[in-house]
């Protein structure tokens, strides 16, 4: 037996060691001299069988060593050594769980080994099921019997904690007043003979009055069968009579009663637990929420009926699978990573998730995932509970439709319209564009309702709604404001006339008759009011309000017409639209003509080329310059057919002149950015050359700096393709844009035309002189020739000549002339310089 002995008295320690060496060699004694060393040894080594400790230690008490051992559940027996007259401490030691105490009397060493062995035996015999000591309230009036019992039990059954009282009233004061309240005792041991209330009366009081379920044991004298029968009847758990040696049976007896009571209690709790489990099972089975329990792998361990109903999988098909096997594929990997992170860090995750039923249908769930932990706080399982949100989503969708759409026409209603306008405003703001709100009210719709009934009226509105929405573009919004009022929102428009144009086309559309279900045909004309963001208002509500005002003005003007909120806009938009229509007509009726301005070689004064400039013969008297119609043609896209016409016309003219013997090197034609961006300019150039039979080298195409800047790589690729055809390219109006010559070096440009504004201020502005000098020098370095535009004076010509500018163009030589006048001028000029 290995014994740790804590002893501060070196003589005692030495004596004991020697004695054991001589007489009890099987006891292996390890001696330390203070409490802290003892505890240190106990915590390091686990192979001691017994702790023997002196009660009084220099740094504490043996009782502290005892309580450390018991608190830390160290499985060793403890024996306390006390001095003489220290019985109180000995008793305390036994109460605290010492297995034995030994008093240091003169001859104590001779019995010490036996005490140690019996202590060890007792420690080992303490029933393992007793998780704690049995706390017994013992009422005994006879002091002799009481003392005997106390001493006996302290020695032989120290795990029984006796609290001794002398009367029934003492017992009552130690116990709860009614059942359910916690008691400080596990058992009450009642001696029948008590002063005042006897044992039976006490039992009655406890069982019947207070209804306590605490185990009660009665001690009777011998031959008290009658008392015993009554006691059993009153509800004692057991009885024991004071026969000779009954004390030897007492401990086992108390253990038995206590254990039986404990078992009964456990049984009751198990029954309760069972009932609770049955309830949980019932909830698990009957809840409409799908539930699954998985282990930590995770693999599904169990699912409820709702799970199988919702997912369509039978329980046998899912057990053992990863719960994610019903993934929909709608979520990104990061979604699941976040879910698992939350589950492992916080123990739970809640949210909407899309999964897939066995049928393949993807459906939304609201899923709540929780980690189940054991008493030690370690995760053991996952529990997932989910609702099928499909129905909820559908009704949300239905509600959404009801809230945002007009039930009759299915068009957006006012609420949705407001948000669309807000959105359009946000977009327009960023792109420097406009938003138009067109308020459309049917003229005299009331007549249809009154004459043909509301059903026909509704049918009419539906047909109109369909017609209007087919007519509008995807990016436009059509909404119904209620009654016979509709709103059209045009997003991102560049000019008010686009809105006017749309209004005109809508009015035209309304002119088409609608066939009623009765077969009759009716026409629903309308009046339209237009407001614009940002000119008129900057909020959706104001825009609608102003469009409404404008619509009322249109109505008062005689209906079937449109009106802008502001008078000027109405006029301006009408003018531009009229102009657009006139250009279209002019194209058809060949009202455009080309004039040609000669280009002169600076050194020889020879006419080397001509620039074709378009004019519009609106009527006999009126010849409109391009600045009056090119911008509108560009905005409306009409520049594409117009530009095509110019190209062909210029090529045909050049071909004719060459055939007539007019020796020009090139015919220059202006290209617009719109042709570059939207048209197929390479094809058109090709076609013009083909149909005219003009060799490509005689065609020069003028592009402005801004075309090159605006369309970057696209223009480079188009320019390369044009060059491949064999035409030459010029940069027009050079100096007015922001491009640098260095940037231009990447483009295949043959000629550079200095803008007339520089040429014309050459004489007065030394700064412009410097700029022109630089442009010419750099252009030469890049292998380009330079044309000076707008040369009006001899002085300008002289200066430019000095700067080695190659070509001139300007009123000093000639304005742009029609084909006949150009030929006259050419001949006159050529004969003047003898170069023909
Ligand atoms: N003050 C002054 N002006 C002079 C002088 N010499 C020429 N001009 C004018 O300068 C303009 C030169 O054409 P641009 O810079 O290409 O500028 C052209 C060109 O950008 C555009 N344009 C003309 N015809 C066409 C065409 O067929 N297609 C395209 N896309 N644009 C054209 O219209 C612009 C204006 O053309 P025009 O009115 O014909 O005006 C012409 C011409 O009459 C001068 O000494 N003094």
UniProtKB/TrEMBL annotation:
GO terms for molecular function: cyclic-guanylate-specific phosphodiesterase activity. It comes from the Bacteria. SUPFAM superfamilies: CheY-like, EAL domain-like, Nucleotide cyclase, PYP-like sensor domain (PAS domain). Keywords: c-di-GMP, Phosphoprotein. SMART domains: EAL (SM00052), GGDEF (SM00267), PAS (SM00091), REC (SM00448). Residues 349-401 form the PAC domain. Residues 276-322 form the PAS domain. Its cofactor is Mg(2+). This is cyclic-guanylate-specific phosphodiesterase. The lineage of its organism: Bacteria, Pseudomonadati, Pseudomonadota, Gammaproteobacteria, Oceanospirillales.
